[in-house]
Each structure stands twice: as structure tokens, then as C-alpha cells.
Amino acid sequence: MKPAANAPYYVLALLFFVNLLNYIDRHSMYAFLPMIEKELGLSDGLAGTLASAFMILYMTASLPIASLADRQGRPRWMAIGLGLWSLATGAASQVSRYATLLAARAGVGIGESCYVAASPSFVAEHFEPEKRGLVLGIFLMTIPLGAAIGYMAGGAIAQAFGWRWAFVCLGLPGLLLVWPLLRLRDPRLLEGRKAPRARPAPRGIRPFVELFSVPSYVAATISTAALTFVLGGFGVWVPTFFHRTWGLNVGQAGLMLGSCTAIAGTFGAFAGGWLSDWLDGRSRAPYFLVSALSVIIGAPLAVLSLCLHRVSYAVALFFISDLFLFMHLSPLNAAIVAVTEPRRRTVAFAANIFVVHLLGDAISPTIIGFLSDRWGLRRALLIASLGFVAAAASSLAAMNHYEKDARYA
């Protein structure tokens, strides 16, 4: 094994950039969704199902892929996923009907599930436990940063050259990183060769079921699902909300939303990881404390931003709410690592992905779309905001169980 291939900070840097492409490809379409709706003649309800189809395939594929990745090596499956979602994003540029665009987005979902099921545990295991909150905070900065780049670049390219070129320009560059992923070595498999009597990764449905007997894991999953319901729906529809409410074109809406997400969301993701590590030893459940407070502070600001009628005030509140809401995710990912056995972590993240998206952004874009057709987009987004309550309550409830669950992991 070449030492540089598995140096911790090399792994973090490589997977950081791949995850950045993951969220760029995932979110860029939403910046120019009004163009697609107009050209293909779609209602808001049908447009919302494009996001839901992506999420349904994404969450469903993560379960079998996680078991395969634990046995066959995570780098191989991360590389397969990157290649597949890059090609599927590029292929979306050639569609002429709703059904083929739906199929392309489903392909992106399958590809991204290969990567996301394996990458958080792969990164975390290269660092000491006391650094994992910060490391996962850095890694998860890619969520707001990638979404922001997707909104800004997708909107700008689509405004200048059309939405088809946006898919090509943002999708295909990911193919350049397939080979570096394949060169990584899975430390679990190397350890297994040195210690052949070590317990193998569990198979079948049992390990998924056993995870849900751990209260902290259940609470982290429910809290993430509730927040994902809201933020996933917002991510799809807020660019369109900006376009309709204030008359911004897709480039302007993408730039405005992307700027907020890039700065506030990226800093928030980093701050959430750093703060939870700093509180370790000062609080009995630092990860859940940070995640709960972030929602309690950020949610009212997000709701208020939807109710204002001046774009400058609304964007300012949206920025501040992003700062707090993105502090929620990295502590909960670190909590999952802390309360699960090493050999079950890929399965744990896969099960988390399945439930989070099943209850979250697999359904919220479609629900918001149909509510928008009936009552208008502003009211639909406000109804979806009720998910913030469940996100905060679940994190607060987990604080009574975290110490015990982490001790027995």
C-alpha cells in the first residue's frame, strides 16, 4: 500500500471534493427548474416528483450497496457511484420528455447512494475519535457549499447558454476523480487480512433492525429526517419562490440563494462540528445539544424570511437562518459514528440515509409542489416548516440516552 494513498488528510481532501461534486450535481437543476417546467410543460406537482424520484432511488439503493461496500471495499463502490451520477447528470442534457428526465435523475440517485452510504464512515475512521466532530464538520461543509455552487453555476450557465448545457458542464467533470477513488485502500479490509479471525461485517436484514434498538441512533435519524423534510423541500422550491415572488431571473435567483448558502451554510456546518467537539467533556450529550439549539434558533428566522415582502430583508434573515440550521447535521453524523460499532458503520449510515430520505426530501418536494398548485408556493413552504419542531424535539430527547449508547458502542 502506498502510504500517501491513505494519509488521513489526503482522504479528507479527496472525499471533500467528490462530495462537493455530489451536491453540485444534486442541486444545480433546481436553479433552472422554471426553464425545464416551461419547455417540458410541467406543473409544480410533476416538477416536484423529479426530486422525489431521485431521492427514492437514492435511499432504496443505499441499503444493499452498504452491505456490499462493507464486504468488497468502500473505495470501489464510491468510484462506481461517482462515475454513474456524473454520466447520468450529463445525459439529462439530451432529454426531450418528462419520463426520460425522470429516468436520468433516478440514475443520479443510484450513483450518489453508492458514495454517500460509504464516505462518512470512511473519512471518520481515518481520524481519532476526539477529532471526528470537526472532521465531519469539514466534510459536511460540502452540503451547503456544493448546493450553493450548483445554484449559482447552474443558474448562470442556464441563463447564458440554456439548461441543457448546464447539465453537461456541471455533470461530466466528476469523471476525472473516479481513478483517484479507486486507488484508495479500505483500512477495514487491510485489518481483516492481518487478523483473519476478526468478526466479518454482518449480512442480511438483521444489522439494520438491530440499529433501531439504539435510542440515540433512532433520535439522530428522526431529527435529521425532520430537518431534511424542510430543507430538502426548501432546496428545490426556494429558487422558484425567489423567481416568482420578486421577479428574479434564474441566474439572479441562483446567485442570491447560492451566496447565502455558500457563506452561511458552509460556516454553519464547520461551526457545528467544532462546537460539538469543544463541548465534549463539558456536556453529557454535546452532539445533540448543538443540533437541538441550532434548530431552535434558526427555524423561526427561516419561517419569518418567507413572510417578508422586501427581498433585502428576506434574504438577510434567510442568511442567518442558514447559519444556524447547517450547524445541525455534522454533530448528528458524529453521534452516529460514536454510538455504532466500527463494523456496522456503513450499514448504520445506509439505514440512516434510507429513513432520512424516506421521511424527508423523498416526499417533501412533491408535497410542496402539489400544495403550491392548490394554495400557492409561499403557503406550501410555511406548512412544510412544521418539520422544524420534530427536528428539535428529537435531538433534545436523545440527550438522556447518548452517554449509555456511546459507552456500549
Describe this structure in words.
The chain is an all-alpha fold. It has one domain (about 5-185, about 205-405): MFS general substrate transporter like domains (Growth Hormone, Chain: A, Up-down Bundle). About 80% of the residues lie in helices and about 0% in strands. It has 22 helices and no strands. Helix 8 runs antiparallel to helix 14 and helix 13 packs antiparallel against helix 20. The longest helix has about 30 residues, at about 215-245. Residues about 1-5 and about 195-200 have low confidence and may be disordered.
Q: Helicity range of the residues? A: over 70%
Secondary-structure content class: mainly alpha
CATH superfamily: MFS general substrate transporter like domains
The largest sheet, given as strand count, sense and whether it forms a barrel, is: none
Number of helices: 22
Per the principal axes of the C-alpha atoms, what is the gross shape?
A: globular
CATH C-level class: Mainly Alpha
Structure summarized in a few sentences:
The chain contains 22 helices and no strands. By secondary structure, it is mainly alpha-helical.
Which secondary structure elements does this structure contain, and how are they paired or packed?
Blueprint: H1 8-31, H2 33-40, H3 44-72, H4 74-91, H5 98-116, H6 119-124, H7 132-140, H8 142-161, H9 163-171, H10 178-182, H11 187-194, H12 206-211, H13 215-246, H14 250-279, H15 286-307, H16 311-325, H17 329-339, H18 345-359, H19 364-375, H20 377-384, H21 387-398, H22 402-407
Helix pairs in contact: 1-5, 1-7, 1-8, 1-9, 3-4, 3-5, 3-18, 3-19, 4-5, 4-9, 7-14, 7-17, 8-9, 8-14, 13-14, 13-17, 13-18, 13-19, 13-20, 13-21, 14-15, 14-16, 14-17, 15-16, 15-17, 15-21, 19-20
